[in-house]
Amino acid sequence: MEKYAVPNKLPAKKITILARRRARIEKDKNLAKLREDTRRKILQKKKHGFKKPEAFIMQYIKAERDHKRIERKFLHSRRFAAEVPKSPIFLIMRHRTRKVASKHIEKVLEELHLENIHTTIFARANEKIATMLTIIEPYVVWGTPSIHTVRDLIFKKGKLLVNGKLEAIQSNAMIEEAFGDLGVICTEDIVHEIFTGGENFEKINARLEPFHLKAPRDGWKKKLNISYEKGGEYGSRGNAIDELIDRCV
């Protein structure tokens, strides 16, 4: 009968695995608690933290640098604004720096709804927008998107404000409810109006929420503080904006 007897305990190997699992779970809990405590301390420090004088000096230097750059562009250059392309629209993405030293630049970014990093918008390609882009040039990348990129953004990242809540565009019924008064009843209608810069472009663009993208897959390949035409990232990149947005969606 002994050979049919059931052992009173699990084999040592199984006990070891279970013990390790329990230890790992306990360790994960402790790490999560530690991270949360650290996060709270950092937030508390930021809220009541003391800024060193060097921080204010650096902020002033950056603001002065931006002021001189804008002055140089507008007063000492024949090129007063970014070139207005043949395409009817710009696709603009803020790509760097959460904090901006210059109040003037900050105001322009807010006007274009580009307060956060990787926020992306459509804008009509005209002289006014081109001038604004010249002012905020080191903080944004822009170009002329293809219809494929416009469609991708609308389908994958398009959001509307519905009853006070942001909701992803999920159906043509939602679109008809939001844009029906403009004769827009489906996603392709939005894509067409945006891409062609139609007569309802401003109204549709105002009702669409800015697109919140991710950092590019594989990261930024060049320096963020050097212009695209000089081998960096910021500024106008024409049709090459498609490749960048494809890596961010």
UniProtKB/TrEMBL annotation:
Name of this protein: Putative 60s ribosomal protein l7-2
One GO cellular component, as annotated: cytosolic large ribosomal subunit
Organism: Lutzomyia longipalpis (Sand fly)
GO biological process, one term: maturation of LSU-rRNA from tricistronic rRNA transcript (SSU-rRNA, 5.8S rRNA, LSU-rRNA)
GO molecular function: RNA binding; structural constituent of ribosome
Keyword presence, Transcription: no
Ribosomal protein among keywords: yes
InterPro entries: Ribo_uL30_ferredoxin-like_sf, Ribosomal_uL30, Ribosomal_uL30_euk_arc
Similarity comment: Belongs to the universal ribosomal protein uL30 family.
Assigned keywords, A-Z: Ribonucleoprotein, Ribosomal protein
Domain of life: Eukaryota
